[in-house]
Amino acid sequence: MPSLPDVMTPDAAQLAQAAGGEGRAPLETGSPEHDLFTGLTRLGDTTLILGHRVSEWCGLAPVLEEDIALANMALDLIGQTQLWLGLAGEVEGRGRDADALAFRRDGWEFHNLLLVERPNGDFGRTLMRQFLFDAYHLPLLKALEGSTNPRIAEIAAKAGKEVAYHVERSADLVIRLGDGTDESHARMQSSLDALWGYTGEAFIGDAVDARLGEAGVMPAPESLRSDWDRTVNAVLAEATLERPASDFAHKGGKQGRHSEHLGHLLTSMQWLQRSYPDATW
Amino acid sequence: MSNEWPLWEVFIRGQHGLNHRHVGSLHAPDAELAMRHARDVYTRRNEGVSIWVVPSAQITASAPSDKGPLFEPANDKVYRHPTFYDIPDEVGHM
């Protein structure tokens, strides 16, 4: 039997060399480069995992028009991922590009928000997750447009146009379904209740966030809360949905501690590159 | 099926100065969503600068069976084409 590499040992140096990297030393934890790399993977992993989740609807949505709309949005998010993770790879300087970061890392190296790895559930739950994220994503990108890092500001400006449409669409559908039939209302309320505990993580900063915020590279997560509250309160009121009272927040995604759902997602998302490394069309 | 969303016809203007052209149809519960669906379904490849959506039920169409009386009488009236004039060369392409 051929000996297989130990999957529990992420050997970034080896992977970087395999990808034609320079084999440079890993970034030092706490250094500005490491902070920037971490911040960028938080952005890129979040759009990647949500984009993949939304793409799971492809061919399955309740009507053709929504199927296409969801696929468009998934592609927007994956396009943004290429930019964020591409920049992260450059910052890291070890030869990993966006593909290497997306397909050759394991769960604990992913820094996405827990909200976006939640399973799709029904159509209403997918839309509720999308709205709760979009309402945060737009003010985040607006703030990133003012980043002291011009590359980040550029990517945020481009992504912001796409996301302005995402939030318009998801808010409208949450209102229609929340204020729709008894059945759709009940499903939207239960989706909101089930996802609520995963929304707070986006607004809780850690030491990396604090340093990036201080340097004006990325906004402090806490500073995005009031915009999000305003949007969410207005839409939920119009949708006749009740905002859950609890402010308990699951956290850990940004630090690489994930729910069991991420592993299953990665298994299917990364299968091809894991089985046939460097396969091309 | 009565619980299906109504059908809408979609017209897209590809560039400033051109006409809106019929590009297809879609289902949507109301005009606002029809517009959004049209954007998602028909402008994915940067096709348009303007969209019209029209409820298909609002369109009155000629019946295929009326083709003869409606269109055939024009077949032998070649004089309706402006081809019986000598156009001076200076006019150029018309």
What is this structure's SSE topology?
The complex is a heterodimer of chains A (281) and B (94).
Chain A: H1 12-18, H2 32-55, H3 64-92, H4 98-103, H5 114-117, H6 123-144, H7 150-178, H8 182-196, H9 207-214, H10 225-238, H11 260-269, H12 271-275
Chain B: E1 7-13, E2 20-27, H1 31-42, E3 50-55, H2 67-71
Antiparallel strand pairs in B: 1-2, 1-3
Protein model, in words:
The complex is a heterodimer of chains A (281) and B (94). The longest helix of chain A is centred in the first third of the chain and has 29 residues, at 64-92. Chain A has a single domain (29-275), classed as Ferritin, core subunit, four-helix bundle (Ferritin, Up-down Bundle). In chain A, 62% of the residues lie in helices and 0% in strands. Chain A is globular and about 60 Å long. Chain A is mostly helical and 281 residues long. Chain B is an alpha+beta fold and 94 residues long. In chain B, strands 2-1-3 form a three-stranded antiparallel beta sheet, covered by helices on one side. In chain B, a hairpin with a 6-residue loop joins β1 and β2. Chain B is flat. The model of chain B has no long low-confidence stretch (mean pLDDT 88). The chains are: A mainly alpha (281), B alpha+beta (94). Chains A and B meet through α3 of A and α1 of B.
Please sum up the structure shown.
Chain B: Pfam families: PaaB. The complex is a heterodimer of chains A (281) and B (94). Chain A is mainly α and 281 residues long.
